[in-house]
User: Fold histidine kinase from Sporolituus thermophilus DSM 23256.
Amino acid sequence: MRPLASDLLAFCLNLLTNPPPFVQPTDPLNIPAALYDAIPACVLAVDNRLRITIFNRAAEELAGHPREKFLGRDVREVFANTMPEYPSFLVQTINGNRRFVDEEISFPHNGRRSRLLVSTAPLYDKAGTIAGAISAALDITPIREVRHRMHHLETLAALGQLAAGTAHEIRNPLTSIRGFTQLIQARALRRGDATTADYCRLIMQEIDHVNNILSDILSLARPHTRQLSLLNIVKIVHDVIAFMYGEAILSGITLRPELPPEELWVQGHIDKLKEVLINICRNAFQAMGPGGILTLSVSADAVTVKIALSDTGCGMTRDIIEQIFTPFFTTKETGTGLGLAICQQIMHEHGGDIQVESTPGQGSTFTLLLPRCLPPERSEAVTAVPGRIFSNSDTASPG
Ligand SMILES: Nc1ncnc2c1ncn2[C@@H]1O[C@H](COP(=O)(O)OP(=O)(O)OP(=O)(O)O)[C@@H](O)[C@H]1O
Ligand SMILES: [Mg+2]
Assistant:
């Protein structure tokens, strides 16, 4: 990715310092504004008194101000507080007749430090003397973030493989342990040894708990091809609310349904969609405590169905939000941190997604997005593939 940024910079500088013959005049000090404005990198040039002579459109966009604010000003003064290294590159380019290539400098942008990749070149007048310097710069912060995220995902994928392999290996001996514990329990009961029988019950209970965690790990590690069917999502949300009602009462929580009167259709796997809704409801219950309110609303536009679950719980900081879909991330003493990772995987398998908004101390909203389908009477046959949902209306006709 980095070579791509430097190639683009090299191309821009080359274009500006050696304008093509059809760009008249060929004097690089008189480069037409349309040329440098068309360049996707930030272009800035100075004369040999370090006054800014070119400030292109990309630079305006990054700076958030029109070029008039910068043209004619001393570049050292403009960048003294934000990135002092940058004018010093231009000074050295003019005084030392040297080029800087792919220098990385940090600069403040939207409240955080971003990274710029900068290259410079001297500009000569017709007599061949240095008349100024030109620089091209690219904001590589998004590229760095993607690279960082990819590295993170690669590590997770490797960890996932390891976890899935380990989970598989643990399962077999666990099944034997459970079987023998059951035998011991049966013998103990026959002998009237209630204490041993109860110990066995506790062992099996814990084995079942471990087994559930292993199932979660395995379901995350393996992509699923499921047969999807046409479902009325309003009814599913209604059923989940009914299912969670008892738990809500026990926890002192009010469930507030905001369901539309009409049916809204999606392609899906009923149990998996219910699993997502139940997981998010349980998280909300755990975040709220008695007196909390969980609002479940369903709405739709022409292409997307939205199910929003809004709680009045503890909320999350930005830092926590960035990690909640990472397997094993949990802030709870007894949590496994797999709930939301599984929810996200299920939503992706449905061609959908999850959006999160949260304010610490006020609450969180998890919005599930699913592709909207036509009602059954207007739908044609559907085909399910992992990761995306196609109906016959959005696949090309065969042949
Ligand atoms: N509604 C919510 N309000 C506040 N924080 C939440 C909410 N939902 C999730 N979180 C945060 O996201 C983390 C991850 O949630 P996730 O469901 O993946 O795991 P968990 O609930 O900790 O454990 P489990 O695997 O048992 O579900 C939680 O530990 C919590 O910090
Ligand atoms: Mg959870």
The pocket of adenosine-5'-triphosphate (ligand 1) is lined by residues 279, 283-284, 287, 311, 313-314, 316, 320, 324, 329-332, 335-341, 364 (CB under 6 Å).
